[in-house]
Specification:
- With 604 residues, the protein is mostly helical.
- The chain has a domain of 76 residues: Tetratricopeptide repeat domain (Serine Threonine Protein Phosphatase 5, Tetratricopeptide repeat, Alpha Horseshoe), CATH 1.25.40.10.
- 77% of the residues lie in helices and 0% in strands.
- The chain contains 32 helices and no strands.
- Helix 1 packs antiparallel against helix 2, helix 18 runs antiparallel to helix 19 and helix 22 packs antiparallel against helix 23.
- It is elongated and about 95 Å long.
Length: 604
């Protein structure tokens, strides 16, 4: 009993001793002092003949070129673990490092000869060869494993990795593509692997062209395997060649006599990547090819109008005939599809077009009132339409009507983003009417909004008030600016310019200079005077680039060069400037996306 107690008391000492030996072994090994590390690993191995201590002890012996001791160690471990083929590889490696290639080859061959076909055994042995740099033997292991399984088990991805390490790109790609021959459902997996194995982020490297060639071969050889067609579409999307991708999407839809869903989804991808014309072509295909009885005819009609509306209105770059065409499309689509809860989105878009672009606020109001009467409208959609009604009322000068509508939405959705948006627009009314204290109080609350966009807008307006009321105790300058801002919103552009002229003449020393220039940029955009708009933005970048509107001006200027002047190089340069000089800007994510599209990088 005393002996047992004594041994129990010594256990922590033995554990501590082993832990200390292992720490010293690691330290010496990492320092390259293999002679000292070998002493400790030998001691540890003799106590615990696990693979962990065995592997490090073997590495030390090989570094010290103590080949006889290394050979004895491997054979000892092999005898204890018969059936584990890894030790053949270890022994062969010992002979190889001695320069005895023939003996090494014999051990490697023995390992492959004893292979049973167990999938895990195959992978473990191949990994052992791979770790020793014996890539050809690793391939032999996989090939024999496939034979032993009668071809029922394939090691294509494993072999492809080895070919990649060997620099044999063609064979690597062939193995990955063959996976889709075995199982087309592996498409997502193959796409993910190829993204990195071929480096699709660099569309100009030679591997990308080789992949294109091989995919085309497979498409031609296996026309009924949809996975290859889908892989080709994916390839063109990754390269940014959406026109080529569209041709494949259409061809696949026709060949398989599909219902147009594939083409509709592709159109949404194009719209998401600002390829509005191509998106419109995709929706047009579904409309014309599938006809009015098609499953996705209504969706395509609605998305067709919406994508053209976004292209024309959201970028603010259009001609008068664009508005006329868009008005006709809205009218035709609503007339054909009817006025119901399914077309409320179209009615909202049409109301916005009429009120803010066709100078018909009364017509826009009537459309929204009609839409609000539709049964089955979700509460959030109803709230959004009320906000638009309020915007139109504000544009018409019905300020308190607008405020009432904003307040209704704010009260109904107090803790949701749309309620915060209503509160922000109400705060703007207070700003427009010169009640800066009340506006400031509302904006301070909104700074904590969960919506980053609302929070940022609230902060910008709050800073504008704080900065410009601090200059003097009389807020005449800020009031002139606020009145001009409201006039721009109401499309009373000449009156807005007069207000700005007065502001700039009477308060040349005031800190509203950059805001005034930015407001003049908005006026130029509403007049479609893009050359003047560019000059105003350049003025801000050159003279007020470090102020709060620097990133806004840079992004808007990039947009003009991209969409109005079709100058991709200049637009890319400006998007890049924004990413580097304004890393905290809300525009960074969109700028990075557009920058990559302009460079022809992958599109998802």
């Amino acid at each position: 009993m005393r002996l047992i107690v004594f041994l129990f008391l010594l256990l922590p000492f033995f554990a501590s001793s082993q832990g200390s030996d292992q720490q010293l072994a690691v330290q010496y090994f990492q320092a390259g002092e293999f002679d000292k590390a070998a002493l400790y690993y030998e001691k540890l191995y003799n106590k615990n003949q696990s693979d962990y201590f065995y592997n490090y002890y073997l590495k030390c012996l090989l570094e010290l070129k103590e080949f006889k001791e290394a050979e004895k160690l491997v054979k000892k471990q092999q005898k204890k673990n018969q059936g584990n083929l890894k030790y053949f590889v270890d022994l062969g490696d010992v002979y190889k490092q001695q320069g005895d290639v023939a003996k090494a080859k014999k051990e490697y061959d023995n390992a492959i000869k004893d292979l049973t076909g167990d999938v895990q055994q195959v992978r473990n042995l191949a990994l052992s060869f791979r770790d020793k740099g014996e890539l050809d033997y690793a391939l032999k292991v996989y090939e024999k494993g496939e034979k032993l399984n009668g071809g029922a088990v394939k090691f294509r991805a494993d072999k492809a990795e080895i070919y990649n390490l060997k620099g044999e790109t063609q064979l690597m790609i062939e193995e990955y593509l063959a996976m889709l021959e075995d199982n087309p459902r592996d498409l997502d997996r193959v796409e993910n692997i190829l993204t990195f194995a071929v480096n699709m982020d660099d569309p100009n490297n030679a591997r990308v062209e080789l992949l294109r060639t091989e995919i085309l071969k497979r498409v031609q050889k296996n026309p009924d395997n949809v996975a290859y067609n889908e892989l080709l579409i994916w390839f063109f999307q990754q390269k940014g060649d959406l026109n080529a991708a569209f041709n494949q999407v259409k061809a696949l839809d026709k060949r398989r006599k599909e219902d147009g869903l594939r083409v509709l989804s592709f159109g949404a991808v194009c719209a998401n990547n600002q390829q509005y014309d191509l998106a419109a072509r995709a929706f047009e295909y579904v409309i014309t090819e599938k006809g009015k009885n098609g499953n996705y005819y209504i969706d395509a009609r609605i998305q067709m109008v919406e994508v053209l509306s976004y292209k024309i209105l959201n970028q603010g770059i259009y001609e008068q005939n664009d508005l006329t065409t868009l008005e006709r499309l809205y009218n035709e689509s609503i007339t054909e599809l009817g006025r119901n809860s399914g077309t409320v989105g179209l009615m909202r878009g049409y109301a916005k077009l009429k009120a803010f672009y066709m100078q018909d606020p009364k017509g826009g109001t009537e459309i929204l009132f009609e839409a609000l009467q539709m049964p089955g409208i979700r509460p959030n959609i109803e709230a959004e339409m009320k906000l638009e009604l309020a915007d139109i009322a504000l544009m018409r000068g019905l300020i308190w009507d607008a405020s009432l509508l904003y307040s209704q939405v704010e009260k109904a959705f107090k803790h949701e983003p749309i309620g915060h948006e209503a509160k922000l627009r109400n705060a703007r009314i207070s700003f427009y009417t010169g009640d800066f204290g009340w506006a400031q109080g509302q904006l301070d609350v909104l700074k904590a909004s969960t919506s980053k966009l609302i929070s940022n807008d609230a902060m910008q307006l709050s800073l504008l008030i704080t900065d410009n009321l601090g200059v003097d105790s009389i807020p005449e300058a800020l009031l002139l600016y606020a009145e001009a801002d409201l006039l721009v919103f109401q499309n009373r552009l000449a009156e807005a310019e007069l207000k700005l002229d007065t502001l700039n003449k009477q308060y040349t020393w005031h800190g509203l200079s950059d805001e005034s220039v930015y407001l003049r940029y908005k006026i130029a955009m509403k007049r479609r005077d893009y050359t003047t708009a560019v000059s105003h933005l350049q003025n801000i970048i050159e003279n007020y680039g470090s102020d709060i509107l620097g990133d806004d001006a840079t992004f808007k200027l990039a947009e003009l060069y991209q969409f109005q002047f079709n100058d991709s190089e200049k637009a890319s340069e400006l998007y890049k400037k924004l990413m580097f000089e304004y890393p905290g800007s809300l525009y960074v994510v969109e700028a990075r996306k557009r920058f990559r599209i302009l460079r022809g990088e992958k599109i998802n």
